[in-house]
Amino acid sequence: KGLDGWGQYNYFVDNEMSKISKASHKCVWFAIFRHGLRQTNIAEINHQRLADSIGVSKDTVKRGIKELIAQGLIDIVHQGGWNRGPSRYRIHIPAVQQGTCAKK
């Protein structure tokens, strides 16, 4: 059994967050995670909604997504845009057993 929502959140904070260079990019991850479906780890949200929800520009969101992809924390399942709807992102959290989430 993998981690539940809080377990995934805690794993990210304890093991992955320090790898992200900017606070605003960390906020991008939190906003994507918040919109993700726990069963699939897929979040469907557009850049403008991400930007509005964390109080940054769309350009900052785009840079944050690029860094999160480079760090292996998310990938793009569907690239949204004009007449294509919102983007969908897969959130990568290791399937670590409950109670074994030790810091790397």
Helical content (DSSP H or I, runs of 4+): 40-55%
**Helical segment tally?**
4
Mean pLDDT: 85
Strand order of the largest sheet: 1-2-4-3
Number-wise, the strands total 4
Distance between the termini: 20 Å
Q: What general outline do the C-alpha atoms trace?
A: globular
Order of helices and strands: HHEEHHEE
The assigned structural class equals: alpha+beta
Largest sheet: 4 strands, antiparallel
Determine the strand fraction and express it as a percent band: 15-25%
Low confidence ranges: 97-104
Q: Could you tell me the radius of gyration in angstroms?
A: 13 Å
Fold and architecture overview:
By secondary structure, this protein is of the alpha+beta class. Helix content is 44%, strand content 15%. The protein has four helices and four strands. The chain has helices at 5-16, 23-35, 47-54, 58-70; strands at residues 36-37, 42-45, 74-78, 87-91. The chain has a four-stranded antiparallel sheet. β3 and β4 form a beta hairpin. α2 crosses α4 (58-70).
Lay out the secondary structure.
Elements: H1 5-16, H2 23-35, E1 36-37, E2 42-45, H3 47-54, H4 58-70, E3 74-78, E4 87-91
Antiparallel strand pairs: 1-2, 2-4, 3-4
